[in-house]
Amino acid sequence: MLKKIFKSKLLPQFYLILFLVIFFGIWQFFVNIGSINPFLFSSPIDIFKDMFNLFATGEIWPHIFVTLYASFWGVVIGTVSGIIVAFIFGNIKILADIFDPLFVGLYGLPKLALGPLFIVWFGISITAKIFMSTIMVFFLVFFNAYAGFRNVDVNLINMMKLMGANRLQIITKLTLPSCIPWITASLRAGVGAAVLGTIVGEYLGAVQGLGWMVMTAGGVYNITRVLSCIFILMILMSLLDFSVKKAEAIILKWRPAVD
Q1: How far is CA 166 from CA 25, 85, 154, 160, in A?
Q2: Could you give the maximum distance between any two Cα atoms of the chain, in Å?
Q3: What's the number of CA atoms in the CB half-sphere (13 Å) around residue 165?
Q4: 43-75: pLDDT as tens digits
Q5: 3-state per-residue secondary structure call for the chain
Q6: Which CATH number does the domain housing residue 138 bear?
Q7: C-alpha 249: how far from its chain's center?
Q8: Considering the domain boundaries, does residue 13 fall inside one?
Q9: Nearest to 25 by CA among 46, 52, 43
């Protein structure tokens, strides 16, 4: 059995599971002997019990749904708007020259500083979380897509012009396909940024969501619940990243694989 694992593509997953077992085992051991204060760090057994109860009672599902709902729309709106703006800037140089410093400045702003504005504008409704999530995704997609549009091979463009291609054909047959790898690369980071934006929004004002659960549990020093929510977020992010990688593999199946 072990020989099959070591010869298969499951080897990284095997090492990951082994690392987690050792990590949690050491953590639990030091809690048991009193070297780690469970009030400050909890223990793996208590965390797993709390996670099991959250799922068994169904308490966690509405909060997961709210966080994923806001993150989903953040990814969709942020990606679409980022691609559209990047396409416009990539084809109209004067606009890029005018607004590029502004976009760089906005991108450099701590998004947490914008949170109170969104709460004032949209209240503590789901709209504020979607807007925060959208902002986080937009800039990641915009800068990647813009770089893709600006780095299309000029020789290929000139070749298509010599073959009689019009502007629309150049865009649909060359420019957009050339930018797909840039856009898909930004999506993996964008998904994480979307969830981060939603969590920040829930921290600032919410009545539901995983961020709200973390904030509420931290307010009463329930470290076990805080870590349970953090681990649930890590699992969700891993599943989302896996889904994006699979989608990327399907979209870019024409690209030669690199071993």
Answers
A1: 64, 22, 15, 8
A2: 78
A3: 17
A4: 899 999 999 999 999 889 999 999 999 999 999
A5: CHHHHHHCCCHHHHHHHHHHHHHHHHHHHHHHCCCCCHHHHCCHHHHHHHHHHHHHHCCCHHHHHHHHHHHHHHHHHHHHHHHHHHHHHHHCHHHHHHHHHHHHHHHHCCHHHHHHHHHHHHCCCHHHHHHHHHHHHHHHHHHHHHHHHHCCCHHHHHHHHHCCCCHHHHHHHHHHHHHHHHHHHHHHHHHHHHHHHHHHHHHHCCCCCHHHHHHHHHHCCCHHHHHHHHHHHHHHHHHHHHHHHHHHHHHCCCCCCCC
A6: 1.10.3720.10
A7: 17
A8: no
A9: 43
The pTM score is 0.81
pLDDT, tens only, 184-200: 878 888 888 889 888 88
Containing structural domain, residue 190 = 56-251
In this structure, is residue 237 part of a structural domain? yes
**Buried-exposed string 216-252: b where 16+ CB fall within 10 A, e elsewhere:** ebeeeebbbbbbbbeebbeebeeebeeebeeebeeee
Report yes or no: 121 and 128 within 8 Å, Cβ to Cβ: yes
Q: How many domains does the chain have?
A: 1
- Report yes or no on 190 lying in a domain: yes
